[in-house]
Amino acid sequence: MNDLRPVTWTGMRGSQPVNWSEEAEKRRIIWDAVDGNVQDLADRLREGVASREEMAFAADLIEGKVKSRRPRPGQPMRSTNDQIAQAVFQFRATHKDWQQKKIKAKVADMFGVKVRSFTTC
Q: CA angle 121-85-54, nearest 5°?
């Protein structure tokens, strides 16, 4: 029998236990909303499971204190930037003989963005 469960990263913040996987998901939902994709945030608000941070962000968005970013075509959204960086580092690790130019071209093609739209170390 296959007993695969999602990995949950836990730790402590002061004296309070913290589920880091949930924290990462909250941040992803907020960053997606900043990028203009508010569907996940709206769903969590309607279900009554939104965190305080998500509710505060939604209020700021409604009041106009925060504006959604509308990326230009070919530009990665903020939530995608981390995935792009991870892909570049994975290609570097697995293809040590590839030039940086080739790696960037491959990753840009994978994510549908322009090579000049992201920089790496």
A: 125
Q: Distance between CA atoms of 89 and 27, rounded to whole angstroms?
A: 22
Q: Are residues 23 and 51 in the same domain?
A: yes
Shared-domain flag, residues 93 and 58:
no
The per-residue pLDDT for range 27-60, each reduced to its tens digit, is 888 888 887 888 899 999 999 998 888 899 889 8
Residues 6+ apart with CB under 8 A from 28: 79
The set of residues, in sequence order, having a beta carbon less than 8 Å from that of 35 and lying 6+ positions away, is 68, 69, 71, 77, 78, 79
pTM: 0.47
Tokens of residue 109, six digits: 């093609």
Residues 15 and 46 in one domain: yes
Q: What is the DSSP letter of 19?
A: E
